[in-house]
UniProtKB/TrEMBL annotation:
One of its GO terms (biological process) is isoprenoid biosynthetic process. PROSITE patterns: POLYPRENYL_SYNTHASE_1 (PS00723), POLYPRENYL_SYNTHASE_2 (PS00444). The keyword Metal-binding applies. Keywords: Magnesium, Metal-binding, Transferase. This is Octaprenyl diphosphate synthase. Supplies octaprenyl diphosphate, the precursor for the side chain of the isoprenoid quinones ubiquinone and menaquinone. It comes from Congregibacter litoralis KT71. The lineage of its organism: Bacteria, Pseudomonadati, Pseudomonadota, Gammaproteobacteria, Cellvibrionales.
């Protein structure tokens, strides 16, 4: 990932400077919570995608740098809200903002970041980007509601699972890449291809994230194993067990999802392994990676394109 970031390191520093500048507020709590999130680090994956997409089209403008900050603000706002909804206590190896500052502060600062993102977006002066991000933010919110509705619902189908992750995760990846193209004045083919690339990298990223809930190391992932199960999330490994496993295995998983209970997590992890659900889930992520790579074929060779290819591969190989 360091090699990928190195391609746009100067511009990523500029994005971080915009983020810090835009977090300034005369309300102390906003700055405290905002700085807490910034200090937590994170991959800055979405801004990197914006910058790489821009570079793959020729160059990175000041508008695209500001747009990368917009995308990161929207992502961070969703994290603040997600951790409250999921009652999460750990993210990136340290207490979540809601654990450190309380639920009310996290929700309200998340609202601040959403609105700050749109204030910054208006300065881009691009109606198409503004409309796209308004639609994308609405899509993400709808995806979060769908995930909430389906928590504890073991009847969730694979198609419904993909619908949720496409809305709540992949939509922002796609919008970041597409927005970079719109700001560059790219032709419709490049706009479409970058949307396809970002969407499929986002889906692969989320599938692997769901996979890590059953085989990740908490010291590396920064979150507890089985958190998704405790929240009753019917992720792809579990859906596969319920469809392909024995009656006993399917019942075990179904009851755990319905009860939002990880008490029998070791047995469920064993069922996931025995049914080949880890391999099935990884193959699904590989398919998305391949679709992402296919979308890049029409772009000229460049350090940015090479980094985008490597980033798609890293979405599968990551351990956190």
């Amino acid at each position: 990932m360091q090699e990928v970031r190195a391609v746009v390191s100067k511009e990523l520093d500029a994005v971080n400077a915009v983020i810090i500048e835009q977090l300034r507020s005369d309300v102390e709590m906003v700055e405290n919570v905002g700085q807490y999130i910034v200090d937590a680090g994170g991959k800055r994956l979405r801004p990197v995608l914006v910058l790489l997409s821009s570079a793959a089209l020729g160059s990175i403008s000041e508008l695209q740098i500001r747009f990368a900050a917009v995308v990161e603000f929207i992502h961070t706002a969703t994290l603040l809200h997600d951790d409250v909804v999921d009652v999460s206590e750990l993210r990136r190896g340290r207490p979540t903002a809601n654990s450190a500052f309380g639920n009310a502060s996290s929700v309200l600062v998340g609202d601040f970041l959403y609105t700050r993102a749109f204030q910054l977006m208006v300065t881009l002066g691009n109606h198409d980007v503004l409309k796209m991000m308004a639609d994308t933010t609405n899509t993400i919110a709808a995806g979060e509601v769908l995930q909430l509705i389906r928590a504890g619902d073991s009847s969730t189908s694979e198609d419904q699972y993909y619908d949720v992750i496409d809305r709540k995760t992949a939509a922002l990846f796609a919008a970041g890449c597409q927005g970079a193209a719109l700001l560059a004045g790219a032709d419709s083919g490049n706009v479409r291809d970058l949307n396809i690339y970002g969407r499929n990298v986002g889906i692969a990223f989320q599938i692997v994230d769901d996979l890590l809930d059953y085989q990740g190391d908490p010291e590396v992932t920064g979150k507890n194993v089985g958190d998704d199960l405790a929240e009753g999330k019917p992720t792809l490994p579990l859906i596969h067990v319920m469809r392909e496993g024995s009656n006993a295995q399917a019942t075990l998983v179904r009851e755990a999802i319905n009860a939002k209970d990880r008490e029998r997590l070791p047995d469920i992890i064993q069922a996931v392994k025995d049914c080949g659900s880890l391999e099935y889930t990884r193959e699904a992520a590989v398919s998305c990676r391949d679709k992402a790579l296919g979308a890049l074929k029409g772009f000229p060779e460049s350090p940015a394109k090479k980094a985008m290819i490597n980033l798609a591969a890293l979405s599968l190989e990551r351990s956190h």
